[in-house]
Amino acid sequence: MRLLRSTDLALRVLMRLAVAEETSPTTREVAAAMEVPYTHAAKVVAELQHMGLLEARRGRGGGLSLTERGRTASVGAVVRAFEGDGDVVDCEGGATPCPLSPACHLRGALRRAQEAFFASLDPLTIAEMVRTPTGPLLLTIGRGPGD
User: Which is nearest to 8 in space by CA: 38, 44, 32, 42?
Assistant: First the structure.
C-alpha cells in the first residue's frame, strides 16, 4: 500500500511539531523544511487543525504547535483519516466495472490486508515516532550549514 502525499506530509508535520520544543514554526517554514509547496502544506495543516491535533496561531508570535491530543494521536488513526476508508482497488468504478466483482475473493483479501496495515499502526503514537534517534534528526531538517 502506498500512502498519499498528504498522509505522508501530515505524519511528518506532526512529528516535526512533536520535537519543536520552544519554537512554533509557521506553515510556510514547515513547508520549506519539508520541501513541499506551501499550498499543499497549508491544506494538510488545516485538516490537522480541524482534527484537533495541532493549533495554528496567526500574526506576530504565531505559528504551529502540537496539542496533547496530537502528541498522543494514533498513527493508524491519522493514516485512516487522510487515506479514507475506500477499497485498495476500485472494482465498481470506471466505465467498465470488473466482471469478477460478484464472485471475487481478491477484494475481500485486499480489504483484510488494508485493515491489518492500519491495525499495525494503531498502537503507535506520534510521540513514540520521535524518540531518539528520529527526534534529534527532525530538528536538523531544513537547516542550512552552520545553523
Answer: 44
Give the list of residues 6+ apart from residue 31 with CB closer than 8 angstroms, or none: 37, 38, 40, 41, 42
CA distance 84 to 4: 10
> In DSSP terms, which residues pair with 55 in a beta bridge?
65
* Confidence (pTM): 0.83
The two most distant CA atoms of the chain are separated, in Å, by 62
99-105 own/partner pairs: CB under 8 Å, 24+ apart: none
Tell me which residue has cell 491535533: 53
Task: Please report where in the chains the cell 499502526 appears, as a residue.
Answer: 121
Neighbours of 58 (CB within 10 A): 8
Tens digit of each residue's pLDDT (9 = 90 or more) over 22-54 = 788 999 999 998 899 999 999 999 999 999 999
Q: Are 13 and 48 in contact (CB under 8 A)?
A: yes
The partner residues of 74 in beta bridges, in order of sequence, read 125
